[in-house]
Amino acid sequence: MSKEKTYTVASLGCRTNQYEGQAFRAQLDALGYRPASPGEEADVCIVNTCTVTEGADADSRHRIRRLARENPNAKLLVTGCLAERQPDLIAGIEGVDAVIPNAEKEQLLARLYPEEELPEFKIDQFDGHTRAFVKVQDGCNSFCTYCIIPYVRGRSRSRSRTDILREIEGLIASGYKEIVLTGINIGDYDGGGDDTLAGLVRAVDKLPGLERLRISSIDPDEVDADLLDAVVHGVHTCKSMHIVLQAGSNVVLKRMNRKYTRQL
Asked: Taking the complete model, does pTM exceed 0.85, yes or no?
């Protein structure tokens, strides 16, 4: 009897990375793999790296080396923002089999298993969580002075409302009562035409079975009257928002190339 294939997926950093890690797990599950148990060597390891800080870089490199050491016979695949920024450095780490840029991340397993029919890069559960994070947007157009994210994640792009709603319906059917909409810069969400973040919030809020709806971190200049109305008057929306205030000095905000002042 052949050995059951196993995997390990490590996602570092933001909630968007956590969502992507869960999507990798869903595809590997569909291939008949199972998560490796503690101390068990995996056949496939995927590391979704982060590079937003120097500490994140170090954590990503440490995780790659650790997985290579603990799983010497595994196929070790590395993607994410550090892999995008320093592909040669990552490829030079002993044990790494392939470095995949962010733009090709969703096709990673399809290219590894071209003969297999894989599900879309989506989720139907969120391991270890009672709430599910759903990626609605990726990339950023802001180009703040200090930030590398637009260079490693690319320009802003959004998923369609239909695609998002279908995924959330599946999560609700799987028993998730709380949904968190997330993205690299969620305030940039634009589903096409008049499809704004406020419109998406209203549409999700109407889904049967949903109990709580949250929005992940958002910049203050992207919180307009329509979005506030959608949150305040929603039936299931949580009446709080994590608004990212980077500084209280207009001089500092200008130097940071933020798009607002302390007076907003």
From this structure: yes
